[in-house]
Design goal:
Elements lengths: L4 E5 L3 H13 L19 H16 L3 E4 L24 E4 L6 H4 L6 E7 L4
Parallel strand pairs: 1-4, 3-4
Antiparallel strand pairs: 2-3
Amino acid sequence: MAISAVVAVDPVGDELIAKIKDRVANLTVGPGSDGSSEMGPLVTRVHRDKVASYLDSGVTQGATLEVDGREHPVTGGGPGEVNTGGFWLGPSLLDHVTPAMDAYRDEIFGPGALGAPRPVLR
Protein backbone atom coordinates (compact mmCIF):
# COMPACT_ATOMS: atom_id res chain seq x y z
CA MET A 1 0.00 0.00 0.00
CA ALA A 2 1.33 3.43 -0.93
CA ILE A 3 2.06 5.85 1.89
CA SER A 4 -0.50 8.30 0.48
CA ALA A 5 -3.37 6.03 1.49
CA VAL A 6 -5.78 7.04 4.24
CA VAL A 7 -7.42 4.13 6.04
CA ALA A 8 -10.79 5.63 6.88
CA VAL A 9 -12.35 3.54 9.65
CA ASP A 10 -16.07 3.60 10.45
CA PRO A 11 -17.89 5.33 12.07
CA VAL A 12 -15.81 8.45 11.22
CA GLY A 13 -14.45 7.31 7.83
CA ASP A 14 -16.88 9.23 5.65
CA GLU A 15 -16.43 12.41 7.70
CA LEU A 16 -12.64 12.10 7.49
CA ILE A 17 -12.71 11.67 3.70
CA ALA A 18 -15.08 14.67 3.37
CA LYS A 19 -12.65 16.87 5.34
CA ILE A 20 -9.68 15.67 3.30
CA LYS A 21 -11.66 16.26 0.10
CA ASP A 22 -12.42 19.85 1.13
CA ARG A 23 -8.78 20.57 1.98
CA VAL A 24 -7.38 18.90 -1.16
CA ALA A 25 -9.86 20.69 -3.43
CA ASN A 26 -8.80 24.05 -2.01
CA LEU A 27 -5.01 23.74 -2.22
CA THR A 28 -3.32 26.52 -4.18
CA VAL A 29 -1.41 25.11 -7.14
CA GLY A 30 1.15 27.29 -8.87
CA PRO A 31 4.82 27.98 -9.46
CA GLY A 32 7.26 27.72 -6.59
CA SER A 33 8.20 31.36 -7.13
CA ASP A 34 4.70 32.35 -6.00
CA GLY A 35 4.59 32.52 -2.21
CA SER A 36 0.91 31.56 -2.14
CA SER A 37 1.52 28.23 -3.93
CA GLU A 38 1.10 25.12 -1.80
CA MET A 39 1.96 22.72 -4.62
CA GLY A 40 3.90 23.00 -7.88
CA PRO A 41 4.04 21.08 -11.16
CA LEU A 42 5.35 17.59 -11.76
CA VAL A 43 8.79 17.17 -13.34
CA THR A 44 7.93 15.84 -16.81
CA ARG A 45 4.94 15.30 -19.11
CA VAL A 46 5.52 11.52 -18.91
CA HIS A 47 5.40 11.65 -15.10
CA ARG A 48 2.25 13.78 -15.09
CA ASP A 49 0.52 11.47 -17.55
CA LYS A 50 1.48 8.37 -15.54
CA VAL A 51 0.11 9.87 -12.32
CA ALA A 52 -3.09 10.93 -14.13
CA SER A 53 -3.47 7.39 -15.50
CA TYR A 54 -3.94 6.13 -11.94
CA LEU A 55 -7.04 8.31 -11.66
CA ASP A 56 -8.52 6.64 -14.73
CA SER A 57 -7.53 3.12 -13.70
CA GLY A 58 -8.89 3.71 -10.19
CA VAL A 59 -12.30 4.68 -11.56
CA THR A 60 -12.24 1.79 -14.04
CA GLN A 61 -11.43 -0.58 -11.17
CA GLY A 62 -14.29 0.74 -9.01
CA ALA A 63 -12.92 3.67 -6.99
CA THR A 64 -14.70 7.02 -6.70
CA LEU A 65 -12.82 10.07 -7.99
CA GLU A 66 -13.65 12.66 -5.32
CA VAL A 67 -11.20 15.32 -6.54
CA ASP A 68 -9.79 15.33 -10.08
CA GLY A 69 -6.48 17.17 -10.19
CA ARG A 70 -6.68 17.46 -13.97
CA GLU A 71 -9.41 20.08 -13.42
CA HIS A 72 -7.66 21.98 -10.61
CA PRO A 73 -6.96 25.67 -11.28
CA VAL A 74 -3.33 26.81 -11.53
CA THR A 75 -2.35 30.26 -10.33
CA GLY A 76 0.36 32.39 -11.91
CA GLY A 77 3.29 34.29 -10.51
CA GLY A 78 1.39 37.56 -10.21
CA PRO A 79 -2.13 38.79 -9.42
CA GLY A 80 -4.60 37.50 -12.02
CA GLU A 81 -1.90 35.68 -14.03
CA VAL A 82 -2.53 32.13 -15.21
CA ASN A 83 0.57 29.95 -15.56
CA THR A 84 0.07 27.81 -18.67
CA GLY A 85 3.60 26.33 -18.76
CA GLY A 86 4.63 23.34 -16.69
CA PHE A 87 3.37 19.81 -16.16
CA TRP A 88 0.43 20.61 -13.93
CA LEU A 89 -1.68 18.06 -12.11
CA GLY A 90 -3.53 19.32 -9.08
CA PRO A 91 -4.16 17.31 -5.95
CA SER A 92 -6.47 14.34 -6.44
CA LEU A 93 -8.46 12.06 -4.16
CA LEU A 94 -9.66 8.56 -4.99
CA ASP A 95 -12.04 7.00 -2.46
CA HIS A 96 -13.28 3.44 -1.97
CA VAL A 97 -9.91 2.08 -3.06
CA THR A 98 -9.29 -1.62 -2.43
CA PRO A 99 -6.06 -3.65 -2.22
CA ALA A 100 -6.82 -5.15 -5.65
CA MET A 101 -6.49 -1.76 -7.39
CA ASP A 102 -3.32 -0.52 -9.11
CA ALA A 103 -3.51 2.82 -7.28
CA TYR A 104 -3.41 0.95 -3.96
CA ARG A 105 -0.58 -1.43 -4.88
CA ASP A 106 1.74 0.98 -6.71
CA GLU A 107 3.61 3.97 -5.33
CA ILE A 108 2.17 6.85 -7.36
CA PHE A 109 4.81 9.57 -6.69
CA GLY A 110 2.37 12.34 -7.41
CA PRO A 111 -0.35 14.54 -5.94
CA GLY A 112 -2.87 11.81 -5.19
CA ALA A 113 -4.37 10.53 -1.97
CA LEU A 114 -6.37 7.34 -1.59
CA GLY A 115 -9.27 6.63 0.74
CA ALA A 116 -9.41 3.01 1.79
CA PRO A 117 -12.56 2.61 3.91
CA ARG A 118 -12.69 -0.14 6.53
CA PRO A 119 -15.51 -1.12 8.89
CA VAL A 120 -12.99 -1.84 11.68
CA LEU A 121 -9.25 -1.45 12.17
CA ARG A 122 -7.55 -4.78 12.69
